[in-house]
Amino acid sequence: MAGQVHLEVNGLVATITNDNPDKHNAFDDDMDAQLFGIFDEIKQRNDIRAIVWRGVGKSWSSGRDVGSIGTNKTDLTHHELMTRGHKGIQQIWEIEAPIIVAIQGWALGGSFQRALMCDIRIAAEGAKFMLPEVGHGVIPDTGGVAVLYEMCGHGVVSDMVLTGRRMEATEALRHGVISRIVAPEDLDETAQEMAHKIAGAPAVAVKLSRRVISHMSRPTIRASMDDELIYQTFLNKSEDFAEFKAARAEEREPNYRGS
Predict the structure, then answer these.
(1) Cystine design at 51: which of 99, 110, 217, 249 (Cβ 3.0–4.6 Å)?
(2) Whole-model pTM?
(3) How many structural domains are present in the chain?
(4) Can you list the residues of the chain whose pLDDT is less than 70?
């Protein structure tokens, strides 16, 4: 069965669910379209005051299927495809309700970056975070690196991006990447309690508080995403990326030239 993204609204709280557990909630093009459609629906509504974004199964989301990285099965150019992805996730900025991400297991790659674009992240014990893109011949390109840089600083972000090393939940809490660690069995309940508390506060106060916070960081994030759009498009046509794919297909050591 293909993966799905579901929306459920219960009173003032909406819940988005990643539902592709057999693949640790990895996203494909169809799930992207479903997610962006849900964001579009939510931003049109004024009856939703808080949002929980969760995943079923062992992981919140393992990003994208590694086999699909660098491929394009649409009629769009790579630049157009990336632009569509950026516009889809930037809808978060147009949604009035705060988004709480409840993470268990893995939050990988582009999915981890999408979580970083949201308001609050909490995690179950044992959750793990990783940006493995460089090891697959591409760069992180969903805006989250700019957020992570603000939280962790140059050294930690460079380590995660360039070596692809994983960050455990306890370290993520120290850096402010997540705000709470809870027992796995308490994750959904805690996220819902947080959402209902926000939903019960005066809506205008929540709205204006989020605007103050977002105005401090959004110009930097937008500039970072503009760079990602240009550099990832160039990288997709680079000699090194062609060599990366050829070496992997031919099961040999690559010979990179930095161009």
Answers:
(1) 99
(2) 0.93
(3) 1
(4) 1, 66-74
